[in-house]
Structures are given as C-alpha cells and as structure tokens.
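Q: I have two molecules that I believe assemble together. Could you output structure tokens for the complex as a whole instead of separate predictions?
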Amino acid sequence: DAKTTQPPSMDCAEGRAANLPCNHSTISGNEYVYWYRQIHSQGPQYIIHGLKNNETNEMASLIITEDRKSSTLILPHATLRDTAVYYCIVRVAGTASKLTFGTGTRLQVTL
Amino acid sequence: DGGITQSPKYLFRKEGQNVTLSCEQNLNHDAMYWYRQDPGQGLRLIYYSQIVNDFQKGDIAEGYSVSREKKESFPLTVTSAQKNPTAFYLCASTTTVGNSPLHFGNGTRLTVT
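A: Yes, here they are, computed for all two components at once.
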C-alpha cells in the first residue's frame, strides 16, 4: 500500500496559488518526500523533493511540517499547463527499495 | 541527452500471445522499475531491480516476468497468464547514491484484443 494519502481532486483558478497537500504520517526519519506530476498519457515528471526543510525551485515550493507527517506542494501562480495529476511519495535516499505511488491529486486549473 | 527510452509507444497484440516491452536507459542508473497504469488510476508497481541479475516482485507481479542482464536494460514480458493486460506501462530508473529522483520513460500503451 502507498505510504502517502492525497485528496483525489482539486481546482485552482489560473494565476492563483495551488496548494496540494500530502499526508505521510508514518514517514521514517531518513525518508525524503518527492513530488511528481503526470500530464495525460506521459511519464511522470519530477518536481521537487525535501527531507525536513522547506525547498523551492523554479517549478514549485515544498513545505514540510515540523513533525514531517505532512507536506504541501505550492505552485505559486498556476497556469492551464499545470493541469495534471500530482503524486507525492516517500523514499529513503540512496536506496532502490519498493517505491509505491498512491492515486495522486488531479489538479484542474481553470480560467 | 541521457534518458529512458520505452518502445514502442503503442503495441497491439492478440489475446494469448506473450509480448515484451522494452526499456533502455543511458543514465548509468542502478535501479529500474516497471509500473502499470489503468485509465484514471494511479501507478501500480509490477517489478523492480536494484542491480544487474537481481529483481523483486512489486504489488502486481502475477502474469508478468522481467530480466536484468544488463545495467541499461530492463525488459518486461506480459505473458498470456495476465488476465487484463491492456494498460499503460511505465518504466523508471534512479541511482542508489544520493537523493536523485526517479526518471520515467514516456510509456508504452498495450492493447490486447
């Protein structure tokens, strides 16, 4: 079973921030949180990852709670091209263990 | 450019035939994965391999087989024992050093009739 849970769907108006939550209450101390997104009929694309500090790159920001049991992916100014399914997974860095994806969150960005 | 190549993009087979999906990477990654995706669903793990000549079953390995004879290649065979083989198949790879993310191919859509 997936180690993460996400809401099945969310809507966001174009130009507004999209905040996608992920629950990973059983996360271990050495597990990172990774986010990916999948546009229809393509392979998932890596977005960002983090261990315990907040992270930001050109695509998004990742906010991890202090207890590390949940995180939020923030797309600061959503565009129509951000419409996709977003997945979060947890993984121990430097390992090639069984990596299980949940069903993700389908983000619909609207005009 | 480095990446993962899955071929072909679309594959059609008759029921009862085995079919092999190709996955090749030139990223020098140790670990490789196969996932299955059904319409409107998430990714389900079929098999994964951490090193050459070694692989482990994922959550839905029944009806599938794999081999890992070379570091860069991880072919998946969908056998006639797989009851519902029509699906979108995704291959991924990653290193076992540092915190590199998974890199995915663009998938093969298999249709069995």
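A: One point stands out. Chain B is about 0% helix and 50% strand.
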